[in-house]
Write the structure tokens for this entry.
Amino acid sequence: MSLLVTGSIGIDTVETPSGKRDDIIGGSAIYFSYAASFFTPVRLVGVVGEDCPKSLLNVFEGREVDTGGLEVRKGSKTFRWHGSYVEDINSAVTVEVDLNVLAERAPKIPANFLDSQYVFLANTHPVLQQELLGSLKSPRLVVADTMNLWIQTERAELSKLLKKIHGLVMNDGEAKLLTEKSNLISAARDVLKMGPKFVVIKKGEHGCVMCSDRDTFTLPAFPTEKVIDPTGAGDSFAGGMMGYLSTQGNFSSATIKRALAFGTVLASYTIADFSLGGLQSTDRDQIDDRWFAYKQAMDF
Amino acid sequence: MSLLVTGSIGIDTVETPSGKRDDIIGGSAIYFSYAASFFTPVRLVGVVGEDCPKSLLNVFEGREVDTGGLEVRKGSKTFRWHGSYVEDINSAVTVEVDLNVLAERAPKIPANFLDSQYVFLANTHPVLQQELLGSLKSPRLVVADTMNLWIQTERAELSKLLKKIHGLVMNDGEAKLLTEKSNLISAARDVLKMGPKFVVIKKGEHGCVMCSDRDTFTLPAFPTEKVIDPTGAGDSFAGGMMGYLSTQGNFSSATIKRALAFGTVLASYTIADFSLGGLQSTDRDQIDDRWFAYKQAMDF
């Protein structure tokens, strides 16, 4: 089934205890698309400036990612992020950020993408998320991400968005900020009252919590010693989850759990190298093997 | 099978966002014994002062806990701890602590306890843990707990202890301190090199990690909104785990996982009330039901 993602594309500089990489490809839409493309064709909508080297955007060559919605905007500069995990591998410190083209108007969704059935609205201004969503014909599953900034400054627009989507993916800090609850199960239940049918709270190295009207469950992260660069783990998680869901055609408890487990596995590949290196080093067979090992580890 | 626990017995004052309780029964051996007694008879070894109200020690009435190793020492005072979770329900702040009788000589293990097959050495000075262990005839499974203080001040004695036990249970902060590794899987692997056949790292609200030569797996905490007082959760976890293990007679991967899941369930009851209230409100049938629901939630 057609899976659409709208989100950021960035040029990152990342420092971790394993080293430093300058000018590598990043951004939520990039990680999401690569992760989801192991499962299903992906339609990518995003915008970069004319300074973005073509070589950086070649990452989807040979993959089923339709970049027809990728705009290279003249006169604009690409989003840039410089982050450091040197102090704490589980928590990024932003050294520098230049929104650049992300602070301008949103990219347009191409006409041939408007029939997309599965939609992931990666983190951006909730007004833009609503605009993007409003232009789609009849999406079957819409999941969004958000961030602290919009929770703090755009609560009214975020509330409107939450009434229009099926699922919300957010991290634990954002869930606590949005609901003012310190217990994540309580926080998740409060999010459900705001509109979404289900919410997934990402806890980084501690896995995730999923809540819906009918289910509450938690899954641990895939246990691994190989943590080189956690950038993009959350977006890869969402990509694996949505990629799998869009191939299933149902939203049973078991399907959603399997989807979260695929998300968990995709995130474990992303953190094993800088940028897309971890995802580029694997294939669907290896992903399925790790998924099955993870499933078995949880079986007792 | 006979299960022996040596550990602290204390009179606690606890403050949490749900209220304050003065002079309630606590201590590692108390929580461990109560939790384990849902599975198997428990032999308790511990010491209190003559100030300890008899009513506080009546908590095991009607339960299969042999308190023949509970010494009431004349002229001594009971261990007291005053803790607060008001700022953060997941992290205790010690307001006041009086070691009292815990700073004196250890209690003796009664002669009729010396044939115990399953042994849990709750946290105390590693020299005392070795002494207690040395007096036992031929224990089949010995698991110990420890704490930051001994890791920092008694490293040599702790190292000797680690070579004599089968399993170590500790929390994430202690594991990082002991191994100087920030990744918990790496930390667990390093602990294995120090002697134990397996290590369980408790992560509080985030569950646990288990590592042995043959397995590495993680289990999330039981998802619950009802967190009244987390005191004793870790000791109840250990009690549930050891209680179940001592009824099984094998240490297969599946058995250990099931044991950790029972530990997880027992901890979820403990945190639902002050002191032993949560454990006192349940029974083996309810525990089995919750265990099965937890198992099913992890099945996909």
